[in-house]
Here is the input.
Amino acid sequence: MTARRYPHMIGRIDPHDARVFDSWYSAYRRAWLADRENAAVIPREALRGAVTADRDDVAYLLHAAWEGDRVVGTLMLELSAQNTENAEIVVTVLPDRRGRGLGSRLLAEAERVMESHGRGVAVAEVPLPRGRSRDTWPGARFALRHGFAVGLEEDSLLLDLPVDPVLLARLRPDTGGYRLRSWTGACPDDLVGSLADLYTVMQRDMPTGDMTYRPEVWDTARVRALEERRERAGTVCLVTVAEAPSGELAGFTVTSLVRGEAVAGQEDTLVTSAHRGHRLGLALKVHNLERLARDFPDYPAARTWNAVGNEHMRAINLRLGFRVEERHLELQRPGGGPAS
Here is the structure.
């Protein structure tokens, strides 16, 4: 149901209504990117595809704050079907409407919705650009003032493309008896079950700091559903896996090319604990960067993320030429925290 538009009214929107969603997304994008150089935002069609898809792993709820006919603030809640204690929330307010209590009202609306769905922990992400501190950046000040605590810190890193092929050749390690297999798009049928297992291991092994998070389980159906959503949204994924001499998958990496986004996304990279020590993480990333340069040479840059403290993967990324652009704070707050 689309809310009626009165000054400063807050209500849920229907993302299937393209005109209303466009207004919501325009405000969300402008607020999210304000004063952030080289920052990333999910493109319109990719986000609309995610929030309108018929799916059983997660539900998205979108709310807007209107001033007359203008959307001046947005709220998005992500409700996982497996992490049933948590609700991931994103609150944004246009720069020229900040400092008037609108963010607090949107946060109060998030709490109301969370309570109605039995969710007790609010989870949020706040970008922190270079040169800004928790005390000087509006988003961080707002979250901390409202009772959120930092549970994990991540860095967003950027890499200019193409990477010097001589450098990649020099960095490419000898993987011994391990074989790299690659595809673009859907996973081959003979590997999809093993890939789902790797996604589950990734959930278990990824750094979570002090965040309240239950590792989610993946299966073949969930992998196929993700691939179908990506295809509908026009996202191209370059996947490379490392296959052990036994035939077991030892690790994987994914590079995503999202329609409407000029920067490639270096997403998950994992080597399972039983197969570490063979430099497979570096081999996987080098291989995908070589594929990217060969098959998609027009991309000017790639972006990736590292949890602070994950020094091994950070060292790999720095050797490849990635540079830190900004810090991201992962925060959480139990329900009923400060509201002003």
